[in-house]
Write a structure and sequence with these properties.
434 Repressor (Amino-terminal Domain), RmlC_Cupin_sf, Jelly Rolls, 6-stranded antiparallel sheet, alpha+beta, 25% strand, 3-stranded antiparallel sheet, 2 domains
């Protein structure tokens, strides 16, 4: 369940300080402008999934560890919906001047790092987007669209996927997911090694 009180800026400041780095040092490690770290820590802007992942790569820290620092990994084989780790719903995903919910929710099954496999339940509200900055990471990923429509860009290829459509690609290619439709889109995906 999403925690509306989660303070992304304070959490980023906390993990940066624990590492003993200045904003500039983290920015250099992550390959982002130091002003981006500053505006996030001051809660003047909310990072996209792609931007936050890029910053966390500089620490290194997974999104599960960022949002659920006190969670104790279990070796459980079975997972109820309440057990899934919420990776994103606490990020504000509203576009400036836009109305409506642009939430992107990614929920992870179990301890991805321990299994070297990340399985996600993904939900994109209309207008939700992983971010203008394309995702790129040393993995492979695939998924199946369960409902709605999702525009997937991989390198120079762009396609709108509908229920039953699937994808599989080398994640080192720049990629982006956007719900350009009017209904929520739901996907089940897998990535190895884990990225988020």
């Amino acid at each position: 369940m999403a925690d509306a009180q989660f303070d992304v800026g304070s959490r980023l400041r906390q993990v940066r300080s624990q590492a003993g780095w200045s904003q500039r040092q983290l920015a250099e490690r992550a390959g982002v402008p130091s002003s981006q770290i500053s505006t996030i820590e001051q809660n003047k802007s909310s990072p996209s999934v792609a931007s936050l992942r890029k910053i966390l790569n500089g620490i290194p820290l997974t999104m599960a560890e960022f949002f659920e620092p006190d969670q104790t990994p279990t070796d459980s084989v079975f997972h109820s919906p309440a057990d899934l780790v919420d990776l994103t719903s606490r990020l504000t995903q509203h576009a400036p001047g836009a109305s409506g919910d642009r939430t992107l929710t990614l929920r992870q099954v179990g301890n991805a790092r321990a299994h070297n496999l990340q399985i996600l339940q993904e939900r994109y509200e209309p207008g939700a987007d992983t971010g203008v900055d394309m995702l790129e990471h040393a993995s492979h990923e695939g998924g199946i669209v369960l409902s709605g429509e999702i525009e997937l860009t991989v390198g120079e290829q762009v396609r709108v996927l509908k229920p039953g459509d699937a994808y599989l690609f080398d994640s080192s290619l720049p990629h982006r997911f956007r719900n350009t439709g009017s209904e929520p889109a739901e996907i089940v995906s897998a990535c190895t090694p884990p990225y988020l």
